Each structure stands twice: as C-alpha cells, then as structure tokens.
Amino acid sequence: MAYEPVLVKHVAEPNAYTLDSYLKHQRGYEGLRKALTFTPNDIIEQVKASGLRGRGGAGFPTGLKWQFVLKDTPKPKYIACNADESEPGTFKDHVLMERNPHLLIEGCAIGCYAIGAKVAYIYIRGEFYHVQEILEAEIEKAYAAGYLGKNIFGSGFNCDVYVHRGAGAYEAGEETALIESLEGKRAQPRLKPPFPAVAGLYQCPTAVNNVETLCNVPPIVLNGPEWFTGLGPDKNGGPKLFCVSGHVKRPGVYEASMHTTLRQLIYDEQYAGGMLDGRTFKAIIPGGSSVPLLLEAHLDTPASFDDIQKAGSLLGSAGLIVLDDSVCMVWLAMNLLHFYRHESCGKCTPCREGGDWLYKLLQRVERGEGQEKDIDLLFGVANNILGKTLCAFGDAAATPVLTTLKLFRAEYEAHVREGRCTIPAEWRAKQPVFAHAH
Amino acid sequence: MSFHPEMEYAPARFHRSARTLAEPGGDFTFTPENQARFDANVARYPADQRKSAILYALYLAQQQQGYLTAAAMRHVASQIRCTAAEVEDVVSYYTMFYTRPVGKYVLNVCRTLSCALRGAERVTEELSAALGVKPGETDPTGTFTLMEVECLGACDRAPVVMVNDDWHEQLSPQDCAAFIDDIKSRGRAAFTGCHLHKEGEPQGPPLR
Ligand SMILES: Cc1cc2nc3c(=O)[nH]c(=O)nc-3n(C[C@H](O)[C@H](O)[C@H](O)COP(=O)(O)O)c2cc1C
Ligand code: SF4
Ligand code: FES
To answer: Which positions 111-170 of B are in contact with A (Cβ < 8 Å)?
Structure first.
C-alpha cells in the first residue's frame, strides 16, 4: 500500500500554512482537544506506547524523556522546542515550520500539557527569520482562536508559546547549549547530569524536543499509538522526514516510513529521482554531516534508526547527502572540518584546537603539500577528539576525518604521492579555497 | 609551543573565542519604537530572567544603527540589567552580530557541503569578482558585504545565499554578476525568497 504522508501532505498547496488550511485538511487542534480529555500521564503513556523517537538526532524515546521530567517540584516546567536546525544537510524543520506551523504549535501545546508546563519556547535559528515571521503570525492566530492562552477549550489548561530567535551558532542545537542560549548566554553546553528534565531552563525541569518530534504528537493522540507503530519497522514507527541533498536530480524533503531504503530515497521517482546528470554514485552521508559514510553496498538498508546503525552509521537528523564520483574525499573532509572548526563552542580543548589542526592538516594534504606522516597525524588528532569532549560535537567533528580515512585512505595517499588533488571537480573553486579561508 | 608535539596553536584566534574590541561609538539609546518592542519581548520571560531577551535587544540595536558599538552594548546592558562584559561575551560568540559597519546588502553565501557540491565555492568566487572584494570585505560604496557562512538549512535549494534577513536560492555561478546588477536596480525584488512560497501568497510582512 502506498504510504500516505502525514506531516507534509499539504505543504505544496497554496496557503498551506494558514489556520484555515490546517483546520480543513489536518483535523487541526482536534488532537489538543482530545488530549485535554485525558490526564497528562495518559498522554505520556500514549507517546511511550507509540515508541516515538526524537527526530533531532539522537533518536531517544520521547515518551521516556517526558516521563523523566521532574513532577514533584514547585518550580515551573518548560518545553524548549529545538528549531535550531543547523546540522549540515538537514532542512526538514524549516519546511514544517514554514508550511505547517500549526502542527508544531499544537504539538507544543500537547507537550506542555503532558509534562505540566505552561510555556513553550521555540528556539529558532537566527537565519530562519522568514520562517519566524510566519510562525509568529500563525501563533497569533492560534491565540485569537483560543487554541493557546488561558483556559484552552474550557479545560482550565493555560499555555503560552513564544518564538526565541538565535543568532548564528550551530552549537545552540545541543540541548544544554540551547538552554544556555535561551537564558541569554553563549551557547556552550552544560555538564550532564543534571539533565534538562531535572534542571534545565532557569534550573527548572525542561523537555527539549525537536520540531519534527513535536509535530508527530498531535497525530499520535488523534490516531492512537498502534497506528503510529504500524507505519514503520519495529521500534522505528511513524512518519519520517528525509532531507535529500547533494548530487541528486530532485533534492528535497520527502516523507516516508522507515521501511524505505536509502536506494529508494535516492533513485525512486517519487523521491530524489536518481543521480544528477546520470553520474555514478560514490557514497552517502545518511544522517547529517556528523555521521559516517555508507557505500553502494549499504544502499538496500532501510532508512531507520536501527538499520542504519547496524550498517555502521547513524540516521541522525536524516539529512542524506548524496555524493557522486566527482567528489574528492579529502576535500569533503576539509569542507566539513571548516564547518566544525568554525562552529566549535571552544569550551573543550580537544575540540577547539583539534578541529583547527584537522582543518589545517586536511588543507595541506588536499593541496598536495602533505606528507605520509600527515595522514597518521590526522588519524591521531581525530582519535584524540573522539570520545574526549563534553558534548557530542567532538565526535561529530572527528567523524568526517575518520570515516574518509577508513573508507578512502587511498585518496589521501594519492594526494601525498602525486602532490595534488587527484579528483578536482569543475564545480569546485578555481582558486584553492585556502586562499580565502578566514 | 602547544601541548601537541607536531601541531602549533593557531597564531590568531580564528573562531568564537576571539575577542575583538568594538568601536566606542556615539551615544546610543533605543528609539521609542524599539524600546516598546524590547519591553514587549522581555515580558515573555520570567521577571527575574531579563537576560533571556539579550539576543532580541542586540538585534534591535543592530537594526537601529547597522552594527553594534560599545555604546550600544552598554545600552543593552542597562536594559537587561547586566554588565557590559556579559553583553560583549554574547556578541562575540554569535555570528549574526556585527561589530563593524557592513554594507547595505550583506551577501551570506553558504559554503557547507551540500551547497559546495552544487557550486557554492564558484558562487563565492564569482560574487567576489563581480564586487571586487574578498569574503569578509565590504565594497568601497558600502553597498555590499560578502561573507561565507555555514549551512543555512536549505540544502535542497543549493547554492543558497542569505541577504540580510532575505533568502536567495539556487544561485548558479553563471548568474552571479547579473544577480548583483539586479540587486542594484531592483533592491529586494531581486531575491527569489524561499521557494516554498506559493503563487499568490503574501511573502510575509516587509522586514521591519
Ligand atoms: C552539536 C549538536 C548539535 C545539535 N543540533 C541540533 C539541532 O539543530 N536540532 C535538533 O533538533 N537537535 C540538535 N541536536 C540534538 C539535541 O541535542 C537534542 O538531542 C534534541 O534536540 C532532542 O530532541 P529530540 O529528542 O526530539 O530529538 C544537536 C546535538 C548536538 C550534540
Ligand atoms: S565538544 Fe566542542 S562544541 Fe562540545 S562543548 Fe566541547 S568545545 Fe564545545
Ligand atoms: S549546505 Fe548550504 S544550506 Fe545546507
């Protein structure tokens, strides 16, 4: 049976973002109305039974996360919605917020009800200002219609949703860094424990949930947990958004079940439609820039959290970056290390200094000035970052180097041997990039 | 000497740990409109958590005078009721705050992987040639600043350029020179906006 999209079915229609469209096509705010007839604990149990796993990267069960939120406390509780979406290759929350904002607003309200919060802050990256304008305008409409504010549906439940604009920092997506940023500080992570569920925003119990995660909550409440689990493989249920970019014919956000294989997402007509210009597939980054590469042999893997992990990578944020045979893997690692070196929050030395060292070594090798020992040095520095940092960013920064070294070491050696980049593509800079690196 | 036998510390700080002193700047206070906006925003947070409004206050100050001076940071500090050092701490961390004057149009070219695979490096080169400036610089007329930024979260529309708070998608290297001319003659109308907007939909209220 063909998969019927749930989250993005209507986004291509004119005025999809409006409250009218949401009420007409998506049984808008019926999930919230229904949720308010249950106890908060019932909602948490339903989300637990659905097996919904966080869509922000780690795949942690959302119901459990909500259950851990401290109950016996006089302090207020908060939902912090993670709309920082900065993982390279990821652009799904962008579409959800811009074209289906009420689904997120409703998800925030149900989430607040479930954990006993009265306020949700949507932390949106500063670059998404055009999205923020839409989101804020639609939040106003939701207030006016009585879906937010005081005594929603006469239930006595009060809920406020605010958008909080970030200002350019990938690290603000890490949950404790996001909380720091919400508190008006540099987006640098905190030591865990205590986890946000115990001491998060303003030291109060807080659930940090990704946009897509919260968007799955209204449909779960409406259709039941069995419906949700039935949509995907065991423990990987529900609708999933996949962001396909890179060398494919039709890059975009595609909704599918997690039964769908990587090959289908790349080649099927209803998804990315095959390789760009008929070129040959070389490798894929299946979960945003922070995860290991997979090769042709892995393409029949279902794009689920567990299957991708078994194949040796991670589904992460479901950002599929497809690479054709014109991509030099040393260049790829260099491109990504430029990102990590720039985005490191600077709190831990291995990440702050190591990222810079990796970038410089990669530059050296890429322009053909590297030596054999630089390859070992790359390996050594990357391994001294891996697992030795405060947050998962360190592992993410080491990964592009380690995965390309593991799978494409010959390309590094060819650079050293021939004293030049051996796979210079026409789409790359004419001048070596280091000339204008800052 | 660094703690690694082979690798040296970076001679100049290259990232968020760098602290560049802001220009002193002339007297700064919010306009009445911005003061009202700030007061409305700060009310979204608990009364004892005014600091949460710091990014918002900095955006307001930046819109008001184009970039952030030490005087502007002191004003923000007085509004937030924190120290100027705390404000400077925040400003120096986030990439969207400017402590130098920038051009009327700040062209932020995404340089990260998905965009680079679709020619973003060439886009930067072509824009650089068309404007006669290197990334990080502003042209002599003060109209354009060229910057390279990291993934903008729209990798399916690569290469993406953010211009101030606007969006321009799928800019091919061949079109860069014409794009600059188009901005010069038509201003914001030259931008594609976000492709997700459908025919006939409002493009959102004009930016502030
Ligand atoms: C360096 C780093 C960056 C992250 N960036 C994001 C992000 O942009 N968006 C997001 O939803 N989660 C991001 N995460 C994951 C969050 O820390 C957190 O796991 C997530 O917001 C939890 O929500 P979920 O359970 O709904 O997935 C990031 C994590 C790390 C370590
Ligand atoms: S690993 Fe990197 S980003 Fe994470 S806390 Fe340490 S320095 Fe900051
Ligand atoms: S890589 Fe350019 S928008 Fe993501």
So the answer is: 111-114, 116-119, 121-122, 124-125, 128, 134-136, 148-158, 162, 165-167
